[in-house]
Amino acid sequence: MKRLLLSVAILFSFGKTFSQNLYFPPLTGNTWETLSPDSLGWCDDKIHELYDLLETNNTKAFIVLKDGKIVLEKYFGTFTQDSAWYWASAGKSMTACLVGIAQQEGLLSIEDKTSDYLGTGWTACPPDKEDLITIRNQLSMTSGLDDGVPESFCTLDTCLIYKADAGTRWAYHNGPYTLLDGVIEAASGQNFNQFFNQRITQKTGISGLWVQVDYNNVLFSKARSMARFGLLMQNHGTWNTTPVLTDPAYFEAMTTPSQDLNESYGYLWWLNGQASYKLPGLQVNIPGPLFPSAPDDLFSALGKNGQFVNVSPSTGLVMVRMGNSPGTDAEVPALFNEDIWVKINALACEPSGVFDEKEMVHTLQVYPNPTHDFVLLGGLNPALPFHVEVYDALGRRVLACEDCLELEAVRMGKGVFQVLARQDGKVFSGRLLVE
Q1: Calpha distance 93→245 (Å, rounded)
Q2: Whole-number pLDDT of residue 41
């Protein structure tokens, strides 16, 4: 069934964005050109609804760029434009960019064995199995190391245990990823902050500091630096006319499926518009795209507690969110990112009528989400009959009922579920996480 992108498809159907059409703020200072929301046909009351969603879900900063110009910029509570916050796993995507820069400078090749830079014995694997792991495997989360160890962030050799041959299993595993910092340091002869400052900050104005937190290097920056990173990626690695990541083959590989085990994962970037996806901790492919309400070409840097950098070249949009947990401790809170895109799609003042009503997939409100016992459905007309079906991650129907606005989630088991409702010739869809 055709997926509907409401106002995004209508308002931003300008084709691909090219660098000559993008605005880039100066490298220093606070000057940044803006674009009024009403010039895009966005209504103030609907913007307030978006901000209400963000505020009630512990957001600190939110920015939307259109062709590089700020359309929305909002800070919550005591957080300001000058406040710094952590990127969490959204920093992985910055690391992917830095690896690409190291390769284009001839410092390394992603086909190299990781042990060429970290030395032999960096894992507890048998030597022949360790020898299979390459930098590409670290980038694509296919190291084969066991993500089920008690401390998945641990980078000690005793924590890096053989599970499968490299390249045969996808698993979201922080330990092998974090060691990419050591690979870059060994290849460049510089510490990670020096490498980041020279290759990124000086060329783009993206300020920030990588701080050691337990085993991890975590990037801290201001929200506008996150937005700058999204703009850099929107322009395929060039800041205005200054080349930063200049290898088009690497950029393409980074932002397209890196393997066939999880189609929605590139090189440390999450990809929308694919046929299925895996989430951290799961070894099943969930049918459908990560973010049904977002543009198909969206690629995203996603971090714990809802640190987001979303980039859609076809629409000219970059969306950034910083904050505390939106109510779930998921390593990658994809459901909340989807919730934001639903609200962005609803910003248009007038519905377009471009799409045939029969082809529309409407938003089904599913709350509380995540849940562990029951769930309520919203967005349906209780005066009209409707039919509800719930499907698990394997596409199996686990529940069906008539005119039911409350479901017993406990009957479904744990996992991610697709909830479909049909009413008056329309299809409503929502996703549910049962913990």
Answers
A1: 13
A2: 87
Give the closest residue to 8 by CA, choosing from 345, 272, 357.
345
**Alpha-carbon torsion, ordered 253, 312, 91, 27, to 10 deg:** 110
**pLDDT at residue 244 is higher than 60:** yes
Q: At 137, list the tokens.
A: 């495997």
Per-residue pLDDT tens digits for 29-51: 999 999 999 988 899 989 999 99
pLDDT at residue 274 in the model: 95
d(CA 395, CA 377) in angstroms, rounded, equals: 20
Please state, in angstroms and rounded to a whole number, the distance separating the CA atoms of residues 420 and 92: 34
Partnered with residue 62 across adjacent β-strands are 74, 321
Task: Report the distance separating Cα 246 and Cα 251, nearest Å.
Answer: 8
The pLDDT, as a whole number, for residue 3 is: 37
* Residue-range domain boundaries for the chain: 6-92+182-345, 360-434
> Which among 242, 265, 241 is positioned nearest to 255, based on CA atoms?
265
pLDDT at 410 over 80: no
pLDDT at res. 15: 34
Q: Looking at the domain covering 6-92+182-345, what would its CATH class be?
A: alpha beta
| Encoded amino acid at 248, one letter | P
Q: Cβ(14)–Cβ(66) under 8 Å?
A: no
The fold of the 360-434 domain, in CATH, is: Immunoglobulin-like (2.60.40)
Per DSSP bridges, beta strands 361-363 and 426-434 are parallel
In this structure, what token pair is assigned to residue 259?
A: 């393997």
Produce one character per residue of 244-265: b if its CB has 16 or more CB atoms within 10 Å, e if not: bbebeebbebbbebbbebbbbb
